[in-house]
Amino acid sequence: MKRIWMVLLALPLAAQIVPNRYIVELNGEPAATYSAKTKDNLRAALADRRLAIQNEHLPIRKAVENTGGTVLASVDTVANALVVEIPDSQAASLNLLPGVLRVHRVWEGKLFLDHALPLSHVPDAWMEAGGEDRAGAGSNVFLIMAGGVITRVVINGRGDVSRMP
Question: What is the set of domains in the chain, with CATH numbers?
Answer without folding.
Answer: 2-111 (3.30.70.80)
